[in-house]
Amino acid sequence: MGDQHTAAHHYLPAGADVAAALHDGDEQALHAVWSTYQRRRLLRAALTGLATSDTTDTDPRPAADHLRVTLTEHAALAEVTSAQALEANRRLIELLTT
User: Fold this and answer.
1) Nearest-CA neighbor of 39 among 62, 1, 5, 65?
2) What is the mean pLDDT of the chain?
3) Residue 26, pLDDT score
4) What is the secondary structure of 17-80 as a DSSP string?
5) What dihedral angle (degrees, nearest 10) is formed by the CA atoms of 5, 13, 89, 43?
6) Residue 16 and residue 91: Cα distance in Å, rounded?
7) Cut 0.85: pTM above it
8) Is there a contact between 12 and 37 (Cβ–Cβ < 8 Å)?
9) For FRET with 71, which of 17, 36, 43, 95 sits at 20 to 30 Å CA-CA?
10) What is the Cβ-side half-sphere exposure of residue 65, based on CA atoms within 13 angstroms?
């Protein structure tokens, strides 16, 4: 499973088999599922904020650059559902308590 993690932050990359990470994954894979879900949530919130922000009084280039970077990062991450994230969390807790 380690080869499906992005090296820098241990997120699952786009196209990764999330179900396999949940089924066969070790602690690192389960943490990557949880972290990827949380990162995508954060990025979606940032995208929503950028879409609703008023840049008429400021230079729009920084906002556009931020939007481009955020969209690129979001697209590079695997799609993890809330149910999958909760299952990863449940399995991590199980590993800690057994």
Assistant:
1) 5
2) 85
3) 92
4) -HHHHHHH--HHHHHHHHHHHHHHHHHHHHHHHHHH---TTS-HHHHHHHHHHHHHHHHTB---
5) 130
6) 19
7) no
8) no
9) 17
10) 4
